[in-house]
Amino acid sequence: MNKHPDTPSLEGITLEAIVTQLSETIGWDAMGQAIPVRCFTHDPSVKSSLKFLRRTPWARKRVEQLYLQQARVASD
């Protein structure tokens, strides 16, 4: 359970939804600058990103952190 109601949570949000939301709100260029991985910087797509992120825990964690950061900014 989220102890702080103002703090966004990842509960119930799929990785696909996170990547899709980020690509639509900040764009692939900004995602590639924040997390410089090939799936964001060279011919990016949700499908290729999901394949990479599911195999790469450190990158997935950074994407989740970026998503939470963007959610906090949007709620301010």
How is this structure best described in words?
This protein is mainly α and 76 residues long. It has one domain: SAP domain (Transcription Termination Factor Rho, Rna-binding Domain, Chain A, Domain 1, Orthogonal Bundle), CATH 1.10.720.30. The chain is 68% helix and 0% strand. The radius of gyration is 12 Å and the shape is globular. The model has no long low-confidence stretch (mean pLDDT 91).
Write the layout of secondary structure elements.
Layout (H helix, E strand, L loop, with lengths): L14 H11 L1 H8 L3 H4 L4 H10 L1 H19 L1
Helix pairs in contact: 1-4, 1-5, 4-5
Outline the low-pLDDT stretches. none
Question: What is the overall silhouette?
Answer: globular
Number of spatially distinct domains: 1
- Based on secondary structure, the structural category is mainly alpha
What is the CATH topology descriptor? Transcription Termination Factor Rho, Rna-binding Domain, Chain A, Domain 1
Tell me roughly what share of residues is in helical segments: 55-70%
Largest sheet report: none
Radius of gyration: 12 Å
Nearest-integer average pLDDT: 91
Strand content: under 5%
CATH architecture: Orthogonal Bundle
- Could you give the order of the helices and strands? HHHHH
CATH class: Mainly Alpha
Spell out the CATH superfamily.
SAP domain
Q: Give the CA-CA distance, first to last residue.
A: 22 Å
- Please work out how many helical segments DSSP would assign: 5
Number of DSSP strand runs:
0
